[in-house]
Amino acid sequence: MHPIATAAQIREADRIQITEKYVPGLLLMEQAGRMAADKLCTLYPGQGAFLILAGPGNNGGDGLVIARYLCLWGREVQVILSHEPGRFEGDARIMHQILSELPVPLTLFEEADIQDIVAEFREPPVLVDALLGTGSQGPLRGSVLALIQAVSALTLPVVAIDLPSGLDADTGDVPELFLPATHTLTFQLAKVCHCVTPAATACGTVTVLDIGIWPEVIRQLGIQRFVPERADMVRWRLKREATSHKGTFGHALAIGGSRYMPGAIALTGYACLQAGAGLVSVFTPEACRTPVFALAPELMCPPAGAVFDWLGPDALEDAERALAGKAAVMIGPGMGTHPETYAFLARLLPRIQVPLVVDADALNLLAAHPDLWLLLPSHTILTPHPGEMARLTGLTHVQERRLETAERLAQDRQVIVILKGAGTLIACPDGTTFVNPTGNPGMATAGSGDVLTGILGGLLAQGYSPQIAAVMGVYLHGLAGDLAAGHLGQEGVTARALAAHFRIPERETA
Q: Are 369 and 408 in contact (CB under 8 A)?
């Protein structure tokens, strides 16, 4: 998996590399600029013109190195400086002095006419944003603000160095003004803003360039945020022995459904089977039994007493019997929020002693009745979408502060929080967080969340730990969406197609 660094962690990496490993900062800047220049030429083969915006700090120093290499490689280059050369600091000042020896125009923004400079190029240039780096926080101001306002009117491709100017490296938030990028070239490690939406969408395609900070230095940073990858799925996959039988892979129980929403719990049960559970039972009102069997005759439906429309206290005795021998429980899809359903849930939760996934209406009941929090088993998995998350937390800024909100809830309540959406977040009670890289907009379809709940339950039933099940489940749910979109197009993706395309990648053989 790929680590995600904060601004403080990347500063610490630089400090250790420079002061303890005796690698000069000037050398790191040289390496960063050279690699970024080389990547620019790869991204834009045949491109002959580049306009570089350089700030007075290390990010601007990287930009000046980029300008030098592009000039030496025969490209037409101009640089606009946000500040007087005397304001440039440390290594950036040295890089400015070196670049001054080459025929690269260095124009102070206060004295520049952006439109005239662009018109001077033989062809429309690529704009390289090297104004602000990971140390920037708070709203834009001064000459940097004015420069970004000026270039925002240009219709040029933008490549950000480290991050788009105006973004905060440590959040997924998007400020009122920033310079969105087509590509972002960052160094050594991805930062939070590259991975967490909505900021990640402003970064375009992100490329991480290895500038030579030693692996042992990275290991000292205490990083707790990661992006999972295919290799993790292969490594975590449990082996299926030849002598296995259906009992080997666990018996999962899905609880939910109501008269007007029978399909949700049916999809959960079906996805649970597709995810590899050996047996799946669906505990649901009588009104839902026919849709469940119609979708997947392999599912079992234990009796729910005389309950017809929704689950209530009358179903409790049968529900307790249904819990016997189960390896994992999923509860909530299509269940409704009737007062009788709350009473059912309040009496059933203390009886669940196996890994639990709470979704949909069970989350809404949890939000409406805080006493239910105390009844959740340790490391329960919650799967809210942003609206459900807002109800659970009472916060209105969930979409703007996704990472902060998910991590706080996970640690405060000691649960695993899967905050769904583009770049789904998996926040764990120990402070570890994962940002999912798979999935596509075609998954924004009815029942997609019910399928995720089933996948999670299927993995838990097979013996995966709650944390690994959560990370795998979200990754594989998104991968199923990508596979389904590849066959059907994004518009054709349905919840059933997601479940049908579930796969755990296998080890590649030569």
A: no
pLDDT tens track for 447-483: 999 999 999 999 999 999 999 999 999 999 999 999 9
Query: Which residues touch 126 (CB under 8 Å, ≥6 apart)?
Result: 40, 44, 47, 49, 50, 51, 156, 157, 158, 159
The tokens for 193 are 């803003």
> What is the tens place of the pLDDT at every residue in 250-308?
999 999 999 989 999 999 999 999 999 999 999 999 989 999 999 999 999 998 877 78
Q: Is the confidence at residue 376, as pLDDT, over 70?
A: yes
Residue 343 CB: number of other CB atoms within 10 A? 15
Q: What is the distance between the alpha carbons of residues 48 and 53, in angstroms, rounded to a whole number?
A: 17
Alpha helices (H) in 331-423, listed in sequence order: 339-348, 360-368, 386-393, 402-413
Can you list the alpha helix ranges (DSSP code H) found in 275-326? 286-295, 316-323
Distance, CA of 116 to CA of 123 (rounded, Å) = 13
pLDDT at 509: 60
Rounded Cα distance between 466 and 456, Å, is 9
Give the closest residue to 108 by CA, choosing from 159, 34, 73, 56: 56
DSSP-assigned letters across all residues of 399-453: TTTHHHHHHHHHHHHT-EEEE-STT-EEE-TTS-EEE-----GGG-STTHHHHHH
Closest-CA residue to 439 (of 460, 428, 457, 425): 425
β pairing state of 205-209 and 190-191: unpaired
Q: Which two tokens stand for residue 6?
A: 């904060």
Could you tell me the two tokens for 490? Answer: 């994004």
Q: Is 120 in a helix, a strand, or coil?
A: helix
The edge-to-edge listing of strands for the beta sheet with 225-227 is 190-191, 2-5, 225-227, 433-435, 425-427, 416-419, 381-382, 356-358, 328-331, 251-255, 279-283
Cβ(2)–Cβ(229) below 8 Å: yes
Please measure the distance between the N-terminal and C-terminal CA atoms of the chain and give it in whole angstroms: 22
Question: Distance (Å, rounded) from C-alpha 350 to C-alpha 141?
Answer: 55
Look up tokens 């490209």; give the residue: 75
Task: Report the amino acid identity of residue 346.
Answer: A
d(CA 442, CA 485): 7
Cβ count within 10 A of residue 235 = 10
36 vs 39: CA distance, rounded Å: 5
Amino acid making up residue 108? L
- CA 218 vs. chain centroid, Å, equals 21
Q: Is 475 helix (H, G, I), strand (E, B) or coil?
A: helix
